[in-house]
């Protein structure tokens, strides 16, 4: 296990921060620009995974497992979000025959 940490620590922490920031910005851009609900869910997952990458990098550099435990909980929340989100999208597709989010304002409860 010590070899893995020393290998990860050979990469500068700034690279992880830059990569995570770029991935997070791409996810935010995808959520703001795209109109397909499935792609928006994928962009939210991209944002969550960029945070996971940063947490794992900080945890590795600090030398404790607290960040990696938090990554596990974020992955559980992301899996639940995908399951619920896809169920909602399937129900909306069944009613409207589209996954375009501009249709959502026409739905009445």
From TrEMBL:
InterPro entries the record matches: NADH_UbQ_OxRdtase_chain4L/K, NUOK/Mnh_C1-like
Keywords: Cell membrane, Membrane, NAD, Oxidoreductase, Quinone, Translocase, Transmembrane, Transmembrane helix, Transport
Principal location class: membrane
Membrane spanning residue stretches: 15-33, 38-58, 70-93
Protein name: NADH-quinone oxidoreductase subunit K
Broadest EC class assigned to this enzyme: translocase
E.C. designation(s): 7.1.1.-
Quaternary organization: NDH-1 is composed of 14 different subunits. Subunits NuoA, H, J, K, L, M, N constitute the membrane sector of the complex.
Summary of the function given for this chain in its UniProt record: NDH-1 shuttles electrons from NADH, via FMN and iron-sulfur (Fe-S) centers, to quinones in the respiratory chain. The immediate electron acceptor for the enzyme in this species is believed to be a menaquinone. Couples the redox reaction to proton translocation (for every two electrons transferred, four hydrogen ions are translocated across the cytoplasmic membrane), and thus conserves the redox energy in a proton gradient.
Cell compartment(s), UniProt: Cell membrane; Membrane
Family: Belongs to the complex I subunit 4L family.
Swiss-Prot/TrEMBL catalytic activity: a quinone + NADH + 5 H(+)(in) = a quinol + NAD(+) + 4 H(+)(out)
Underlying gene: nuoK
Domain of life (superkingdom): Bacteria
């Amino acid at each position: 296990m010590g070899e893995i940490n020393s290998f990860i620590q050979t990469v500068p922490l700034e690279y992880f921060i830059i990569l995570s920031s770029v991935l997070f910005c791409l996810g935010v851009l995808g959520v703001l620009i795209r109109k397909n609900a499935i792609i928006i869910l994928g962009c939210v997952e991209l944002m969550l995974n960029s945070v996971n990458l940063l947490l794992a990098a900080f945890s590795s550099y600090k030398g404790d497992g607290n960040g990696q435990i938090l990554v596990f909980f974020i992955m559980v929340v992301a899996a639940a979000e995908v399951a619920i989100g896809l169920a909602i999208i399937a129900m909306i597709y069944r009613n409207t025959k589209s996954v375009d989010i501009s249709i959502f304002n026409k739905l009445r409860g």
